[in-house]
């Protein structure tokens, strides 16, 4: 198919439409069972770097837009970064197709205990090697440019996307809730902790033994942050109609109505946040090394 500097789901001034590409290239008989994903350049009208991807919620269309990020395959670490960012963004956007939001069953983002590729905290940096150790909070420090961690040196975090140890996963929901009005650093991200391990939520460089209040997901409120069992709640049949007796699921799920894909092949898209300052710095550093 022909190259387009920018791509959106619906066409806008100067940008191509994913739906137009799909109509021209996908056999109509595949629409009810196949997901359609385009590896594209950018969602920005000038072709500049922006969001890494976009997808329908409970739909079958998505895109990955890393073309202007300055990613390179010229060295081992750069190649790992390229492949891992592509893989994690594909998994993230497909998660939206499977009905998942940035907080699992809610739009609330950056919850450290929601240990999922759907969470912006873990989408690009990936998951740490062990949620019970001090390294479990490194993604939080990275996102807050604290304790020596920043997007510009993302290769220094545990199981970084520059390595072959990169991890990505949907959450199994096993994390306990974190109360922002009563945070205990020794609980780390709610999946147990090894002796002496803690999450330095207030980034003061030392462990606090007592509880304190802190808005750790930066949504301007102090709330109880919950994990979510992604795997038990993936909604796969975006276009199928149930018939007959299929039994009763014992899992608690959100209810979605199957769409009639042949007559209405467009679903609401996930609301992706604009790139953060840290992400812009990362893109700049990548472009500086892609020579």
From TrEMBL:
Pfam families: Reprolysin_3 (PF13582)
Gene3D superfamilies hit by this protein: Collagenase (Catalytic Domain)
InterPro entries in the cross-refs: MetalloPept_cat_dom_sf
One GO molecular-function entry: metallopeptidase activity
Top-level taxonomic group: Bacteria
Name recorded for this polypeptide: Uncharacterized protein
Species of provenance: Iodobacter ciconiae
Origin organism lineage: Bacteria, Pseudomonadati, Pseudomonadota, Betaproteobacteria, Neisseriales
